[in-house]
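Reader question, answered in our methods column.
A reader sent in the components of a multi-part assembly and asked whether the whole thing could be modeled at once rather than chain by chain. We filled in our standard form and ran it. Here is what they sent:
COMPLEX SIZE: two components
ENTRIES:
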Amino acid sequence: MPVVPRPENVVIGSALVALGVLWTLANLGRIDLLATLRTWWPTTLVLWGTLELYNTLSRRGTR
Amino acid sequence: MRARKVVVLLLLLAFGGFLEVAWTVRGELHLGATGCRILGGRFYGPSYAFETEGRVASPEGALVEVTNAFGAVEVWAGAPGEVRTRLRTVVFLPTEDAARSFSRRVRTVAAADADTVRVSTNRKELDERDVGLETHLSVAVPPGTVVRVRNEHGRVDVRDVASADLESSYDSVTVDRVAGDARASNRHGSIAASSVGGALSLSNRHGDVEAKDVGGRTALEVSHGDVAVSRSAALSVQVSYGDLVAEEVRGDLEVEGRHAAVRAADVAGRARIATDYRDVQVTRVSGDAELAAQHGEVAASEIQGAVTARASFNDVVLSSIGGPVDVKVEHGGVRGRNLRRGARVEAAGDDVVLEGFQGAVVVENRRGGAELVPEAPLTDPLQVSCVHGAIRLEVPGGSRFDLVASARPGEVRVDLPELSITESSPDRVSGRVGGGGPRVILAADHGDVSVESHDSMASRER
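And here is the structure of the entire assembly that came back:
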């Protein structure tokens, strides 16, 4: 049976990757880190919510 | 919902809340692009550069004063009778058209009166709070010009001028080939000065300082940065939280350090060095040396004059000292080799070892022993007292002295063929060596005393 990753793990991992990429771009002088993070941080909630919905609906479909 | 998810969600919301608060605070403070530049060290986003040039006639002997911010200032010698300027404007805006439009409002301001030519930009008149703007000024001045630069958040590079007075911050300051005096002050950036004909005065916080080939007196005040000086005249340094290396000082050296290691070599005058929590290392000094290190080691070699050394919680190490030696150490020992004009040593906490010394020697050691090996036949007074430590004296052949050795409680062992004993007991021996001479007094408290001839020591080692 395939192992399904926990939604919060996916969110944490994605957030860390995104934070690292944005921080690097800020260090390179390409973006304003605060403005970018402030604009895009709610997408982590969207991503998490989507994964939770997907998991819930998938479980109902398999019952 | 599991507790783990609740924790992650709360952390995520807290992070978002922090970002929103930070964003609001930044907006309330009206930081703008300039504020971000100050806090972050750079402007952000795409940028476009534009250049303009200008010139202004310069009265003979006029001072040239350059004022700038958020950009570099370069000054060098150009043609006589005029000051030529080149302004490179870098505008941080999304499109080239917008940047070019903005750059047209930026210009060099150059004006001359009878004795001063002032060069700056009009950036203060511009409302550039929300636009990243760098103004880099290159200024060619007449040969032999006195230059003054006031800059902030930008590099300063001055060369081939009569004298220089420079101030900047958050970037490097370089001054090279100055005929007369030079003064530079910086914060959060390095300073490098070279080939200065007159006096040099440098002040820096949070940055390294390097000075070389200075003809006049050099005075440095540096905190939170390392200092390197080579080939200077008389040198005076105040340094804290950084290390100093000084080489080839053609005059006196004075150093006042805090949390600073000091290393000096080839000093033509006298050396006066005090520091704490780090070591002092000095070699080849023509005059006297006064050296002090609290919580640090003092090491000196090849000193032609007298040496005064103070240390605590570490040792004093001396080698090849031409003048009298005066040492006091708390919680440390003393090692001396080739001390040519005697020594007075007070120590506590570790042994005193003097090898190859000449002249009168006085050693007082608390909580430690003493080992003494004279360089030549012993004909000068020697007084050694130790508490909680043994005394060992090696006597070269041909020595002449009156010996009084005591150990209470302890044992006195004397192995000298030339000794004529006048008093002998297990804890006290007195007598004459080589017909008598200056007094040699060895007194151990809670330790043994051993006096042996150099020859018997050598044969035993063979």
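What stands out: Chain A has a mean pLDDT of 82. The interface with chain B takes residues 8, 11-12, 15, 26, 29-32, 34-35, 37-38, 41-42, 44-45, 48 of chain A (CB under 8 Å).
Send us your own complexes using the same form.
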